[in-house]
């Protein structure tokens, strides 16, 4: 279920996507709500969007509106509301990036619901690439995210195995990678959700705005992401370096972990990650378990 | 709160408004839902819309899509989703008709919520007229509705004072009239809600589809309504005839009624209606009460 207020916010976004500003009264008429109500709702939106109300106008900072980005070599499709960006990407051509402000049925790994509340960055990148790059994507994408957080925002993000991005043990970004064969190549659907200016959707999650103590224009993050995505194949040419980077950023290594798999729960110490992505967990007296990411439902750091 | 499914239905409408048909798979991609889910939802919609799924296509009968109407002398604005058509009409020019498939904050008389579920006809007519016609609107509009039901659908509708339209004592249409002065004339906002192909939203309501036992194309009703609205001034030139018509169509006359006013409840027999619209109720031993429609919250026929 969705609140009427959230829907009105999405109608406001829908109007402002192609026009930076609107006279508040005119916007109220277009949406069919009283101007006072619209002003109250727009004011509330300014907690999650770089939106200002001044002199009877409502103005959206273009650097926070993905529709204003024209990334070279990519088709950007930005919609207020979608079922999910992963599904919407199915019909798009390769090298499209689909961005939604809200998803009715956002998916995370293992069919878990993905909470896409307003002000976050919810995107799917559709990429046509070779098998080598595709097989490394689960390692490369979290590295890209950590690099952006560390180098462009000075924020100490790290990886929780297999590919959640955490800060202070709280999730700030999630990744869902799906693929299909296309002739001799692979079509990759890389879904990335980043808590940017949205309120943290769940316990143990955190948003960039909580860390920076201010709202940040989402297009900066999105352009950095697009830039790195364009260079995925190049990155995959140096598998040793990528693996080294992944291990460097991996918070899980040497931590005590609680893991839920299809076979049940186990507790142990994470001691290594194989080249092919499996986590090795020492569960006692030298006994080791090999965990496949696709069969691991949940992992928590518990020390 | 609104269900995700209702929102997906509104996204389907939004796509079909300007295109009579869509390949189902392409529509699923555009909305970002799996084709199987879209098909299930579209199938469910065909209970409330003249919508067909055949050979992998979804097709909306244009006679059920208000956007296909081009009424002479009127500007028709049709939106899937609005706060309310009354508010949206505020920014429109006179002789506009605003139609919404769903209202987030539909209003009835006395600020009561108006339930606008999918498949009904929810419209506001914005009319610039003289004071004489404006003062008669509360009598003329219900007459127009009853005439349409009786003459074009062969359905025995009648008026429940002051201006609900009922069939078998169940509400099928409601009216909300608001006005503002504009120079020496009156801007009228005539809100009309008709349960056409929607499921009856409340107990004691009924839809045209229940009576006809089939879905009916809404544009026929809407064009008839627009035609009559264009002739309101002409109708108001014959006040005697209008009054006679109103009394003829008024179910409430000589009925035992329970009335809720701001001063409390009363029970009595409805014996007359004044030229100025007040209902006269005999409450016992010749004692009569005069009820102003604007101060009467609810009236029920109880015999
Ligand atoms: Mg630092």
Automatic annotation (TrEMBL), chains A, B:
<dbReference type="InterPro" id="IPR004143">
    <property type="entry name" value="BPL_LPL_catalytic"/>
</dbReference>
<dbReference type="GO" id="GO:0004077">
    <property type="term" value="F:biotin--[biotin carboxyl-carrier protein] ligase activity"/>
</dbReference>
<dbReference type="InterPro" id="IPR004408">
    <property type="entry name" value="Biotin_CoA_COase_ligase"/>
</dbReference>
<feature type="domain" description="BPL/LPL catalytic">
    <location>
        <begin position="67"/>
        <end position="258"/>
    </location>
</feature>
<dbReference type="GO" id="GO:0005737">
    <property type="term" value="C:cytoplasm"/>
</dbReference>
<dbReference type="Pfam" id="PF03099">
    <property type="entry name" value="BPL_LplA_LipB"/>
</dbReference>
<dbReference type="InterPro" id="IPR045864">
    <property type="entry name" value="aa-tRNA-synth_II/BPL/LPL"/>
</dbReference>
<keyword id="KW-0436">Ligase</keyword>
<protein>
    <submittedName>
        <fullName>Biotin--acetyl-CoA-carboxylase ligase</fullName>
    </submittedName>
</protein>
């Amino acid at each position: 279920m969705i609140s009427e207020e959230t829907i009105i916010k999405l109608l406001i976004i829908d109007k402002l996507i192609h026009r930076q500003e609107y006279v508040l009264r005119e916007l109220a008429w277009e949406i069919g709500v009283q101007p006072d109500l619209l002003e109250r709702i727009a004011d509330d939106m300014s907690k999650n969007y770089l939106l200002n109300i001044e002199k009877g106008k409502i103005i959206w900072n273009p650097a926070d509106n993905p529709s204003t980005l024209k990334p070279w070599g990519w088709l950007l499709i930005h919609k207020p509301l979608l079922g999910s960006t992963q599904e919407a990407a199915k019909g798009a051509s390769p090298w499209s990036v689909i961005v939604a402000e809200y998803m009715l049925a956002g998916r995370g790994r293992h069919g878990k619901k993905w909470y896409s509340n307003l002000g976050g960055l919810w995107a799917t990148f559709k990429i046509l690439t070779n098998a080598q790059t595709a097989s490394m994507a689960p390692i490369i994408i979290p590295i890209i995210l950590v690099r952006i957080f560390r180098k462009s925002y000075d924020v100490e993000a790290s990886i929780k195995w297999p590919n959640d991005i955490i800060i202070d043990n709280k999730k700030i970004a999630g990744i869902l990678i799906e693929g299909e064969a296309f002739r001799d190549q692979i079509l990759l659907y890389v879904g990335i959700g980043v808590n940017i200016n949205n309120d943290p959707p769940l316990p143990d999650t955190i948003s960039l705005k909580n860390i920076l103590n201010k709202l940040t224009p989402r297009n900066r993050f999105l352009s950095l992401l697009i830039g790195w995505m364009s260079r995925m194949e190049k990155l995959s040419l140096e598998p040793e370096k990528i693996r080294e980077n992944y291990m460097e950023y991996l918070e899980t290594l040497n931590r005590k972990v609680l893991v839920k798999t299809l076979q049940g729960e186990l507790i142990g110490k994470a001691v290594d990650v194989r080249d092919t992505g499996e986590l090795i967990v020492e569960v006692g007296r030298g006994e080791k378990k090999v965990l496949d990411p696709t069969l691991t439902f949940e992992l928590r750091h518990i020390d």
